[in-house]
Amino acid sequence: MKLYDMQMAPNPRRVRVFLAEKSIDVELVAVDIAKREHKADDYIANINRMGQVPTLELDDGSHISESMAICRYFEEVQPDPPLFGHDAKEKAAVEMWSRRAEQNVLLGVAAAFRHTSDFFKGLEDQVPAWGELNQAKLPERFAWLDAALANREYLAGDNYSVADITAMIGVDFARVVGMKVSDEWPNLARWHASVASRPSAKA
């Protein structure tokens, strides 16, 4: 198996952290987004028709893309430790909070970065006003996470899950637009210190 990866991009990191939690080793193939390697004809024709990372190449030559789809594949291959929940109720909670963290935090940061950063000039059709709007909303989204974590250790409840991975990636990625966790959000700060201290966070 191979994982087509970009070290600095948030979605490939979601998969790497997930794999580290599972103690699964997969060969990483670096894809340079700045050089538009993800948009190369060969990559689009043979690896990912959307021209995105991450993409998992299985031993039979087939491909799975989208970070959560890749994580779900590995959850089925190696159920322990369960990162999508233990029972029906917890699985639903993990799904809910992972989607919320992605939509309200990670995608907001991505929009702010993609539409305001010089890095994406020539790579994206930038709409600076959209990026600035998303950046302006980040403090309230951090406050929302802080409130959600007021009475529980992890985002979806008592157990670390893929929802925490998604939220951590979003919070960490926010640094690229100057947004950091502070004492203004004590619950978020406590949670972030905990998940960031896990060995998998360095993946």
Overall outline: globular
What's the average pLDDT? 95
CATH architecture of the largest domain: Up-down Bundle
Q: How many domain modules?
A: 2
**SS-derived structural category:** alpha+beta
Q: Helicity range of the residues?
A: 40-55%
What is the CATH top level name of the largest domain?
Answer: Mainly Alpha
* Major sheet strand order: 2-1-3-4
User: What is the radius of gyration computed over CA atoms, rounded to a whole number of angstroms?
Assistant: 17 Å
Distance between the termini: 18 Å
Unreliable residue stretches: none
Summarize the model shown:
This protein has seven helices and four strands. Helix 1 (10-22) packs parallel to helix 3, helix 4 packs antiparallel against helix 5 and helix 5 (128-148) crosses helix 7.
List strands and helices in order, with pairings:
Blueprint: E1 2-5, H1 10-22, E2 27-30, H2 41-46, E3 55-57, E4 63-65, H3 67-77, H4 88-116, H5 128-148, H6 162-173, H7 186-196
Parallel strand pairs: 1-2
Antiparallel strand pairs: 1-3, 3-4
Structural overview:
This protein is 51% helix and 7% strand. The chain has seven helices and four strands; from the N terminus they run βαβαββααααα. The protein is an alpha+beta fold and 203 residues long. The mean pLDDT is 95. It folds into two domains: 2-77, Glutaredoxin (3-Layer(aba) Sandwich); 88-202, Glutathione S-transferase Yfyf (Class Pi), Chain A, domain 2 (Up-down Bundle), CATH 1.20.1050.10. The protein has helices at residues 10-22, 41-46, 67-77, 88-116, 128-148, 162-173, 186-196, and strands at 2-5, 27-30, 55-57, 63-65. Strands 2-1-3-4 form a four-stranded mixed beta sheet, covered by helices on one side. A hairpin with a 5-residue loop joins β3 (55-57) and β4 (63-65).
